[in-house]
Design brief:
The chain is mostly beta strands. The strands form five sheets. An eight-stranded antiparallel sheet has the order 1-2-3-10-5-6-7-8. Strands 11-19-13-14 form a four-stranded antiparallel sheet. Strand 6 and strand 7 form a beta hairpin. The longest helix is centred in the middle third of the chain and has 4 residues.
Length: 247
């Protein structure tokens, strides 16, 4: 993260202004740093190996959360979300798999419901979870359907995104991250892949325009805009207010 002569990019989300606090809302006690205004919390807990629940501290239902077991190596980054159709789906941030249907109950305004799977709740394992809820004018999590055209679908967010992550959910495909720090004007074609260790890629088919109120696909790549393909996305605002400036 600080190699001499090498370019880096970082995206950050802020929890609470104070130290993490103990949360006993679920069957498993968690340590939570929550920023409900920004719809973000980060929490840690120790797994039990038995299905249960863990408090997230947001006060509203999260729409997407990322869970990682941090005690042992080799475990997946689990992404669970209701962004596709309202049901709880899962994907792997470190892999290309299509979405699967989670057997866990939907999250609530106070807890995540988790299975006893080692990736999210291995007995005695230290685990971290990053939880995101939508905030109007600041963050948006959803899905869209591709049309296979260079005049691709427009995705309305209600703000000018600073950061967009998306992945095909009905089939295999890489995760893509675009941002306005590396591409300061359109087309937006410099991407990084969370599931890969490679360097930044200059895309020709999986590309988009970042607009004042959302983003629009401008390529025919199957990883971003296959005809009839479904995709999930998360986006965060450049200017997190009700009004947003075009570029």
């Amino acid at each position: 993260w600080n190699q001499i002569g090498v370019s880096h990019v970082m995206w950050g989300w802020r929890g609470s202004d104070s130290s993490a606090v103990s949360n006993t809302d679920g069957t498993i006690t968690s340590s939570v740093s929550a920023n409900p205004t920004a719809g973000f919390s980060v929490m840690t807990y120790t797994g039990t190996g038995v299905a249960g629940s863990v408090g997230h501290g947001l006060g509203v239902v999260p729409k997407l959360y990322i869970i990682k077991q941090r005690t042992d190596g080799g475990n997946n980054w689990i992404v669970q979300t209701t962004a596709v159709d309202g049901s709880l789906d899962y994907l792997f941030l470190n892999a290309t798999n299509a979405k699967g249907d989670s057997g866990d109950a939907l999250p609530t305004s106070s807890v995540l419901n988790i299975s006893g799977n080692n990736d999210v709740n291995g007995s005695g394992d230290g685990i971290v979870a990053y939880c995101f809820a939508e905030v109007e004018g600041y963050s948006k999590f959803g899905s869209y359907t591709g049309n296979g055209s260079a005049d691709g679908p427009f995705v309305y967010t209600g703000f000018r995104p600073a950061f967009v992550l998306f992945k095909r959910s009905d089939s295999t495909g890489n995760w893509y991250i675009f941002d306005v720090q590396r591409n300061t004007y359109n087309l937006t074609n410099l991407t990084l892949f969370p599931n890969l260790s490679g360097a930044e890629s200059t895309e020709t088919n999986n590309i988009l325009d970042i607009l004042s109120n959302g983003f629009k696909h401008r390529g025919i790549g199957g990883f971003s805009n296959a005809s009839g393909g479904t995709y999930i996305y998360m986006a965060f605002a450049s200017n997190p207010f009700k009004n947003s400036l075009a570029r």
